[in-house]
Amino acid sequence: MKEKYGKDFMLMVIGQIISLFGNGILRFALPLYLLRETNSPTLFGIVTACSFLPMIVLSFLGGILADRVNKRNIMVALDFLTAGIICVLFLCIGQVPLVPLMIVVLMLLYGISGTYQPTVQASIPALVANENLLSASAIVNQVGALAGLLGPVIGGMLFGSFGITPILLISILCFAASAVMELFIRIPFQKRNNSIGVLAIIKSDFHDSAHYMKHEKPILIQIIVFIAIFNLILSAMLIVGTPILVVKTLHRSDELLGLSQGIQALGGLCGGILTAVFSKKLKISNSHILLFLCSLSVGIMAVPLLLGMSDMISYVIITVACFAVMGLATMFSVQMIATVQTETPPELVGKIIAVMMSISMCAQPIGQALYGVIFDLFQNHTGVILLCVAALSALVSLASKKVFHRSLNSI
Q1: How much is the CA Rg of the chain, to the nearest whole Å?
Q2: pTM of the model
């Protein structure tokens, strides 16, 4: 019988802490470095959008690999690969044009992340018992939130004081150390027939996932559609809008941007803790409430900008509201993933999670590119932008109520 949290699960968690910390300082520093160097919200939005495209495609590939290849080997290989990419970036900065260099590096990093995360999520059912899946998933999300908390705060201090160089060096060490740690993990694995070729495997596995969702769990398709629309409207705005609001609209320092994003990550950490504490009380049929509260929080972000409050007060209110959004979004995300893990056959878990992640993120790059242009064109009306985002996302959350309510008997 599997222990509640065995040695291998704890090793995976420790490896995640190290890897995600390196990832956290990179995800903070690289886009900020681009925004500072180019001073263009439009370019910032377009590059950010381009970086997400491989993540969408490779999320499904990650699910296929997670179900057919030893999960530990995938994590080890991807962490070593990431360390190598950052080494190349370190050598190329100042020698190669910045924008194309950043596009290539960010696309590679997000693509690796898209392959990596389904592997981690698919490993959890193999390491813990079914009754502990929700709390184990919450722990993994808490690790991500903790790394996201420390990454931007430390990254902001390092970037503000010393520039991009120490961040690149620290991240290289983090990914290499994580890969070494993961070498000692043992994840149960049953080898499957992979002799039919990669394209045939992709086609077959996609068909299996689509068939399962269409005929066995059709409610999943409707949920994915609503999540995709919500990502287009709200999530894309937060990813592109928060750095622009803090750096350009409110004229805050790199350190304060790092603190703001660290507090957002703290919101994710708190959301994971609340999910674990109230795991028995949370119901998927009420998930639309979490989305509505996210929309309400964005509406609060608009208030200081519309009322012309001071830059520092606006910064505090926006940061607190982002804390709330991240906490609520994490509760929603953990609940969705744990439900799929519990109700999906083991041989399909990785693929179904990957398909959900890929499809739900499809609209996000479009939103990121659009918001870069919108914040550039209407930089003096950012409060109105946030108010419109809040209203539209609230309508989506209310429209999803019937779908989540039906899912109580469908999932």
Answers
A1: 20
A2: 0.74
